[in-house]
Amino acid sequence: MGTPLVVVQDLRKMFVHMGRELHVLRGIDLTIDQGEIVAMVGQSGAGKSTFLHCIGTLDLPTSGKISLGGEELTSLSSSKLAAIRNRMIGFVFQFHHLLPEFNALENVMMPGMIQGRSRKELEPLANSLLAEVGLAERASHRPGELSGGEQQRVALARALVLSPKLILADEPTGNLDTKTSEAMHQLFFDVNRKHGTTIVVVTHNMAFAESMPRVVRMRDGRIEADERRADQRPGASQASEPESPARAALSEDGEGTVSAVPS
Ligand SMILES: Nc1ncnc2c1ncn2[C@@H]1O[C@H](COP(=O)(O)OP(=O)(O)O)[C@@H](O)[C@H]1O
Ligand SMILES: [Mg+2]
């Protein structure tokens, strides 16, 4: 087993909507290890976004526990949560939320600028992240001068700028065509492998989910299945490739092992 990064215990979330209680998360237990890349799938309304928002400290659960890097979140003040969010988590949403009046480079630097870091320190970092997502030549373009796929790649570079331990992505390719989506999916794998960043991606793209070493399926606010499988990607098991802890753990368990946890 690897080192747990996210530990969720009996997580519940209830909304009151027009006087009625809506139980959106109904007792979720999930552990995600450092270095894992995990797909979350499930029908619309299953609670995937709510779950991501809770582990991303963007929303508070009704009950249950979430620990991130050993720190219990549910007892922390909102300013402490904001500090943890900044330090540990990068987000990629379906819509990129880039600032239209800033260029790609400035958008990538923005989380660091907000923290008061200098442009001098951030600029080389942002440039190298833009190069990593294949946009070295687009640094001076504003979002309106980029394609949808390029905008999402800028959003991914921005999510990486503070070296988060965890990236939470909510249908990041939900708005892109098939070919552009595939390139973006590959980038998630590359980031996971190169930076060791733990990644949780909500997706409706079955091919993408199927290519993941772990797929968590949600249904009606619960985890219906949690499947691990050997990495199918070309080169994934080559000795020359640095292996993520999760994949090392997988191969120790025996390649091709698939386990399903009933809800
Ligand atoms: N702020 C809210 N108030 C009331 N109901 C909400 C709120 N946010 C989400 N819901 C409801 O919770 C359910 C799960 O939503 P969501 O987590 O967005 O699902 P998914 O991302 O799997 O499609 C939906 O029925 C949705 O309408
Ligand atoms: Mg959603």
Word description of this protein:
One of its GO terms (cellular component) is plasma membrane. Keywords: ATP-binding, Cell membrane, Membrane, Nucleotide-binding, Translocase, Transport. It comes from Chondromyces crocatus. This protein is an alpha/beta fold. It has one domain: Rossmann fold (3-Layer(aba) Sandwich), CATH 3.40.50. Helices cover 34% and strands 26% of the residues. Strands 6-7-8-3-9-10 form a 6-stranded mixed β-sheet. Strand 7, helix 6 and strand 8 form a beta-alpha-beta unit. Helix 3 crosses helix 4, helix 3 packs parallel to helix 5 and helix 4 packs across helix 5. The longest helix has 18 residues. The C terminus is likely disordered. Magnesium ion binds next to helix 1.
Determine Rg (CA atoms, Å): 18 Å
Count of domains: 1
Class by SSE composition: alpha/beta
- Taking pLDDT < 50 over at least 5 consecutive residues as the criterion, the unreliable ranges are 237-263
How many helices does DSSP assign? 8
Element order: H for helix, E for strand: EEEHEEHEHHHEHEHEEH
Write out the CATH superfamily name. Answer: P-loop containing nucleotide triphosphate hydrolases
- CATH hierarchy class name: Alpha Beta
Ligand inventory = adenosine-5'-diphosphate, magnesium ion
Architecture per CATH nomenclature, i.e. the level-2 architecture? 3-Layer(aba) Sandwich
The gross shape turns out to be globular
Fraction in helix? 25-40%
**How much beta, percentage-wise?**
25-35%
CATH topology: Rossmann fold
End-to-end C-alpha gap: 22 Å
